[in-house]
Amino acid sequence: MIIRHADEIPVEERKTNARGGKFVFQRILEGPSGRPDNFYLQIARTFKDFDSPRHRHNFDQIRVQLEGSVDFASNGKMTPGMIGYFPEGTRYGPQTSSDDALVLVLQFGGASGNGYMSEDQFQYGVNHLKEHGEFRNGAYFHVGPDGKVATKDGYQAVWEFVNGRPMEYPEERYHTPIMIYPDHFRWTPVPGSPGVACKRLGTFTEAETRVALFRLDAGAALDAEENSIYFGMKGSGRIDSGSRWRNRTTIYLQAGERAKLTADEPSELFQIGMPKIERAETTRSASTEASTISV
């Protein structure tokens, strides 16, 4: 079990960025680099100068809007309390930020088995590509051997450099990102757990990624599930290991781990049930966009 308190984690500013505008963040959790089940959980703050073009990824994302708002144009606006699932292969944006927006973001390998590039790999790739071209407005511009300027999505350019091959985009499982209004769901009692209620917000893809909210009365206890991330949305409490959790604490239970979370006051916890990714070679159905970068 891994426990991280957001108020104890330093804030960093991303000096090398494939998108536009100021971007500061806290590294909360990082998964096993180089594996299909790799992931990266961060709390990110963006500002009015942030901009990102319409694009897609070869990994999944879950976003929890904590403060401010983020506008994804035709896909909708996320305001405080909203939760979004952004599937691999699905285009979204362009994306802009309010004056000061704070979001919990989980980026992780999805059902396609493409995995997720680590933050360190990303930074390494951006720094290298900047020696041969320019990142501008979310895209990468590079003069090829033929003397012509080639343009590519900034993240895709970095991924292709780091991995040494064209990026394979999974075919869309969902036509659009899914924006969730948790306030519009009813609380339902959790059987066998007095004082605990739940909002089951969604299960996605054949990998069964799950999102839910749990409400605990003071003194109530939640049996936390394995292979899950829990994030404190309000309140505080104890973990049967002897540790404590509070607002914006992250608790990560890996495969085979269990824990009992007891609330000291009325509390809410957000759960992400991590996807069931096979570690064996995955058969993928993908469309490949030809690479135009040679550095």
Which short descriptors sum up this protein?
mainly beta, Jelly Rolls, disordered C terminus, 7-stranded antiparallel sheet, 295 residues, 2 helices
Question: How would you describe what is shown here?
Answer:
The chain is 7% helix and 43% strand. The chain has helices spanning 119-129, 154-163; strands at 2-5, 12-13, 23-30, 39-47, 51-52, 60-67, 70-71, 77-78, 83-86, 95-97, 100-108, 133-136, 139-143, 149-153, 168-170, 178-180, 188-189, 196-204, 209-216, 221-224, 228-234, 237-239, 244-245, 249-253, 259-263, 267-273, 286-288. Strand 13 (139-143) and strand 14 (149-153) form a beta hairpin. By secondary structure, it is mainly β. The chain has a domain at 186-273: Jelly Rolls. The model is unreliable at 279-295 (pLDDT under 50). The longest helix is centred in the middle third of the chain and has 11 residues, at 119-129. 37% of the residues are buried. The protein is elongated, with a radius of gyration of 20 Å. It is built from two helices and 27 strands. A seven-stranded antiparallel sheet has the order 1-24-21-26-19-18-17, with no helix packed on it.
